[in-house]
Amino acid sequence: MTKFSANLGFLWTELSLPDAVRAAKAAGFDAVECHWPFETPAEDVAAALKETGLTMLGLNTVRGNPGENGLCALPGREAEAKAAIDQALAYAEVIGTPNVHVMAGFAKGPEAHATFVANLRYACEQAAKLGKTILIEPLNHHDAPGYFLGTSAQAVEIIKEVGAPNIKLMFDCYHLQIMEGDLTRRLTDRLPVIGHIQFASVPERTEPDCGEVNYDHIFAHIASLGYDAPLGAEYKPRGTTDEGLGWMKG
Ligand SMILES: O=C(O)C(=O)[C@@H](O)CO
Ligand SMILES: [Mg+2]
């Protein structure tokens, strides 16, 4: 049976992060994940995870200054990028999170590419010491115009160039349907480099029960590939989170 991870960056946002973890457990999720948990003491999150038996699968490096969306492909901002990576890994270590998503930011061109690769090599070295994996995630050009990483093809090239065993692709079906489409074949092709999968309806980014992607088919296809890690429910509920969980019950 497909397992699901509640993305607490979008689900139960009215609750504190520890209470959102508890709500996810009560709703039947198999795991949780979040965006930027840094304002919540890591010990409080760790306690909620221990109490519920859930794992926080991933968290993100900080976005930077207002209007920014990550620091790690920004030439000249290397010191801040490293600090963001160190902060995310340290938090992940306290709460037992296996994956850190290193956010690129708004940038373009060869210098940005070289900066991202160098910062990712640093991230992979630091993460390896803790037995953790670094994720990179293409974002779509409507929600994040100018974001450095826009396609899974670009991510695969970067993963190859970084050349570390612990860097993987965060395959967000929502973003990649918009940017590349052909989700069934693309999931098959990218499987060897996939570290986590997320989903939401397209184009609204709501519950996965409407819009242009048939998630019954996508979930069955992912299972047929032998991928059985929890899939990240990263959508914005149309109403309350609890009212919108009908898709989980089938
Ligand atoms: O927006 C997404 O999709 C994410 O997964 C975030 O973690 C990064 O913006
Ligand atoms: Mg995502």
TrEMBL record:
One GO molecular-function entry: hydroxypyruvate isomerase activity
Keyword hit for Isomerase: yes
Domain Xylose isomerase-like TIM barrel stretches: 21-249
UniProt-annotated catalytic positions: E137 (proton donor/acceptor), E234 (proton donor/acceptor)
Gene Ontology biological process terms from the UniProt entry: glyoxylate metabolic process
Pfam families given in the database record: AP_endonuc_2
Record's signal peptide: none
UniProt xrefs under InterPro entries: HyI-like, Sugar_Epim/Isomerase, Xyl_isomerase-like_sf, Xyl_isomerase-like_TIM-brl
Keywords tagged on the record: Isomerase, Pyruvate
Protein family according to the UniProt entry: Belongs to the hyi family.
Protein name (Swiss-Prot/TrEMBL): Hydroxypyruvate isomerase
Source organism of the structure: Aliiruegeria lutimaris
